[in-house]
Amino acid sequence: MDDDPQRVESSSDHPIAAYNAGAVGWLYRGISLVGIVMAVGGVLVEVSLHGEMRSGLWPISQLFGALMQGEPSAWTTLGIWILLAGPGLALVAMFISGIRRRSWPAVILAALVLVIIILAIPVMTWIEGGV
Amino acid sequence: MSTLLLIGIALTGFFAAGLGTMVGMGGGTFVVPILVVALGIDIRAAIAAGAICVVLTSLKGSSTYLQEGMVNMKLAMVLEVTTITAAVAGAMVVIFAPVNALKIIFGLVLAMTAVAMFASPKRRRSVKSGPDPFGLEASYDRPTRPGQKNYVPQKVRSGVGLNSLAGLTAGMMGIGGGAVQVPIMNQLMRVPMRAAVATSTFMVGMTAVVSALIYTGAGLVDVAVTVPAMAGIMVGSKMGSKMGTRVPATYLKTLLVGVLVVLALMMMADGFGWWSMR
User: Fold this and answer.
1) Taking phi first (over 0 means left), then psi (-120 to 50 degrees means alpha), and beta for anything else, what does residue B139 get?
2) Are the C-beta atoms of B149 and B126 separated by less than 8 Å?
3) CA-CA distance, A47 to A39, in Å (whole number)?
4) Which residue in B140, B144, B184, B259 has the fewest CB atoms around it within 10 Å?
5) Residues of chain B neighbouring A113 (CB-CB closer than 8 A)
């Protein structure tokens, strides 16, 4: 499969063109739909039930419990997190696709960008504790 | 937050994305300043909402471009390394800089965007073949006639360096940064306009995620601002792409340049303390 030129799904026929653009496109389509439906749906249910809405996002440590209790604002938070996870998941898909096609420059580039995004999480936690 | 304000936020997203899409820009450039100067929303909450809206519009917009094979994913990854790092720095500025300074910076960037839109340099022709040390050559199916369009991005090192400006702007302002990225790719790197727009749409989502994570950590995300803006932008961008072909682009561009100038002046006046909605 790796050597079949008909299966190259990127916009280029260059050897580095290892990223599976079509699959990433479908992933983006699904994530954006699920994310927006959960975020907007959560707000609508929350406003209709309580007449007001929680302004902040649920902390990740409390999110699961709030979801289990059926808290609509937790669905909104989860919807926003699903949207934010989209580009990271795309990078993981591109990383795996690069490995399967043994295109090491593509793997390194996807990994580098993914690492920078992952590094933003400790920065986020540091700010969460400090600001 | 009152229901009227929530509707106002959703309408801001709707009109900003609708008009922005008609002239090939995202809605973020207009959404954040209108939320601040017209609705009196805190600038940091508006910037955080803007960044999350950029992620949503990037996911939605680039899914089509990806499936059509228009996105040069290799080029995107090469450029993202500096863009995303600069976005982290930009997001830190939002958290630690005084609010008034943010408004002044925002106003200046809006003014520069208006000048760039007004000047709108001619599209540069792409380079079909030549040295390609980074393996970034790409091609896509021409949408208007049969055959493929091949191109080799030029001046990659300069492009990588300059794209950090797009990242910094995106991180500081909660916008996509496409207004900076597309001219760099088309004018400097000689990437065809369609591929530059598609690649930029794909890139802005990744850039915005980093700043959105940092804003989330700082507790800047206000659901009451973010979700109505997201809903408005989703509907507005769909309307804008349908209406785009029916409205003369020249008039629309002139109108939007005017809107940007007014928003820039209001933001700066607010930042200097000469005028405020509140």
Assistant:
1) beta
2) yes
3) 12
4) B144
5) 77, 80-81, 84, 206
β-strand partners of A119: none
Which long-range contacts (C-beta less than 8 Å, at least 24 apart) are formed by A113-116?
Answer: A113/B77, A113/B80, A113/B81, A113/B84, A113/B206, A114/A88, A116/B81, A116/B84, A116/B85, A116/B88, A116/B210
Alpha-carbon gap, residue A3 to A6, rounded angstroms = 9
Give residue-wise pLDDT tens across range B8-63.
999 999 988 887 777 666 667 788 889 998 888 999 999 999 999 999 988 988 88
CA angle B254, B258, B259 (to 5 degrees): 120
Could you give the dihedral angle defined by the CA atoms of residues B5, B9, B11 and B15, in that order, rounded to the nearest 10 degrees? Answer: 150
Which among B11, B6, B143, B119 is positioned nearest to B65, based on CA atoms? B143
Domain extents in chain A = 20-127
Half-sphere exposure of A14 (CA within 13 A, CB side): 24
Say what the pTM is.
0.88
User: Any CB–CB contact under 8 A between A97 and chain B?
Assistant: no
Q: Report how far residue A129's alpha carbon sits from residue A66's, in angstroms, rounded to the nearest whole number.
A: 22
ipTM of the complex: 0.87
A15: nearest CB among B1, B65, B135: B135
